[in-house]
Structure formats: structure tokens, C-alpha cells
Amino acid sequence: MFFGRRCPIGLDIGSAYLKVVQLKDTKGGYELDLFDILPLPPELIIDGSIIDSPRLIDSLKELVRKAKIKTKDAVISVAGHSSVIIKRVSLNEMSEEELSESIKFEAEQYIPFDIEDVSLDFQIIGPKEEPGQMDVILIAVKKDMINEYLSVVKEAGLNPLIVDVNSFALENVYEINYEIEPDKNTALVSIGASTINMNILKGGISVFTRDSASGSNLHTEALQREFSLTYETAERLKKGEQVENVSPEDALSVIRSASEEIIGEVNRSLEYFHEDISEVILSGGCALVKDFPKLLVEKLGVEVKIMEPFKNIKIPKRFDMAYLEEIAPIAAVATGLALRRSGDR
Questions:
Q1: Is the pLDDT of residue 2 over 50?
Q2: Which of 138, 140, 10, 162 is nearest to 71 (CA)?
Q3: Which among 1, 72, 198, 286 is most buried, taking Cβ atoms within 10 Å?
């Protein structure tokens, strides 16, 4: 009865690009139905907060037209260290129903905002070794922020079904594409234009998440400053394109210096997690910046793989495979959102 019904789109509203992915449920897996991206003008979104709603709505409408999106249902996500709090906490053992009723009371001591100003959710991870205790992931997002996103998505003519969190969307993608190894700490790190989302999994279960306000805009700004370039020209240079009057060697030196600043932020987040990391799986626009993954390996001393969100997803022949492989790291969050279905917990 469900076959033939259109699945929701995964819509990742980043600060540099809008990304949309739609997957079809097939026997034994998923098939890519739709993928598109649209660059956004700078400074529409800063640290996850929408600064210019009318222009963002226009861009969303343009994406709907460009990608020929037929379904209205969308799964979206939020991120940002100042508006999204995710904490793993230990609580007295209770049922999901009991926790649903007492979540406000339980969360109050862990959330640095007024409890009335946030939307709360939780995921019970399982019992702890101490009798009568259980591990729970608490998620609190400022209502103002959620309402901003819901409002622009609705204004663009879409129906937001689910609001997820970027770091959990990365986990969804990891689960369908990678082998889960017990006791192995894997850091899923998405570095976009202005945020770093990190989710560390131990044996496939989330044990640590952190968002930071840093990202590949640092590359762009450094290039603009150093060579007096426009935003658009600096973006091209960052991707390794030739630009008049700028030598590739000089550009690379500026890019490397900004990369070191971003990697410093990643390293600080990893240090908050007091265990060794086996590997980093990198996604987001930074994965496409020249030499960034190589520098990340050098500085962290850990194996770094580029996220392959379409690894176990069937790709029909109508898609340009070379383009998809090149751009894939940018599609990680949108693919994770596209895996969600109405009624999911």
C-alpha cells in the first residue's frame, strides 16, 4: 500500500548551499530519486540562525523549481552551538512513557536555557552498568529557531514533517553505508561554511556530540582579505580554480593557514571526548577544499575517510555519476534526512 507513495525530501538548509535528496524505498534498500544543490548568497544564515528570511524563501522556491520537486513533505534539520543542546545523561531507569511525562523536570538541570523556551526530545540508549540507571540522549532546541525554519519552509510551499538535528542525520547515513564495529570510536565530522557538527559513535551508538561556530567561510574570508577579492571569486579560488593575478602557490598558503584554524577547532572538540578516536569520517564543503583532508590526517594523526553518503544507495543511470561522487560529501546531511519517514521516533 505504501509503494508508489512519494517519500519526503531531505532538505539541508546550510549557510552556503541548499541541498535536497529524495530516496525511494526498494526491496532491500534505497534508490536515489532526486538530488540537487543551490548556492546561497552569503550571510543569509549565521551560526544556524536565519538572518534574511525573505531571500531564503526565494532561494527555497528556486530550488523547488530547479530540482522539479513534486512532493510537499520535507524533513529538515537544525544545528548551531548557541541554539541546540545535545547531552548524554544518566537518569533513573523508567519507561519511555514515564520519561515523556517527566522530561521537562529531568532536563531542567542540564539545559542552560529557560525550559519553556525550548523544544525537548530524548532517546533512551539503554541501561547502565549501575543497577536502576539508564543512559539517555537529551535534545533541546530553542523554539524561536525551530519556528524560524518551519516558517520559511512553509512559506516556500513545503510541508515540514520532521525537524531533526544535523549530527543525528550524519548517524543515519553512517548506519546504512558503513560496517559498525563494536568498541570502535568513529567521529562523524561535518564541516560546512559556518558550523562544525561532530557526532562520535562507539560501536555505532552516539556517545558525544558537539557543534562549533567555525567552518569553510574562514577560507573564503582569508582569501578575500589577502588578495582583495569578491566573495564569489574567493569561493572559486578555494575550490582550486585559477583566478587572475593570484598564483596557486600563494592561494594554497592562505588556504592552509585557514585550514589549520578550522582543524584546531575540530581538535578541541575531540579533546573534550577523553578517549582515542579510531577514524574520522569527514563530510561537508570543507571535504572539497584543496588538501584539507590530507592536512586533517597530518594534524590529528588519525585515519580520515571522506563520507560516501550514496555508497549503499542504488543510483539510476540518469544521474551523472562523476558529479555525484565529486559533490557527495556535501550531500551527507540531506541524505540522512531523506532516510527519515513519517511516524519515526
A1: no
A2: 10
A3: 286
Length of the chain: 345
User: What's the pTM value of the predicted model, to 2 decimals?
Assistant: 0.93
* Alpha-carbon span 61 to 155, nearest angstrom: 9
pLDDT of 112 over the 90 cut: no
- Three-state DSSP at 189 gives strand
Q: What contacts 71, CB < 8 A, 6 or more positions away?
A: 6, 7, 8, 9, 22
Q: Is 128 left (phi over 0), alpha (psi -120 to 50) or beta?
A: beta
As its CATH architecture, domain 9-219+253-338 has 2-Layer Sandwich (3.30)
Alpha helices in 193-320 (DSSP H): 217-227, 231-238, 248-272, 292-300
How many contiguous H segments (helices) and E segments (strands) does the chain have?
10, 16
Residue among 238, 214, 211 at smallest CA distance from 227: 238
Which residue type occupies 250? D
pLDDT band at 74 (very low <50, low <70, confident <90, very high): very high
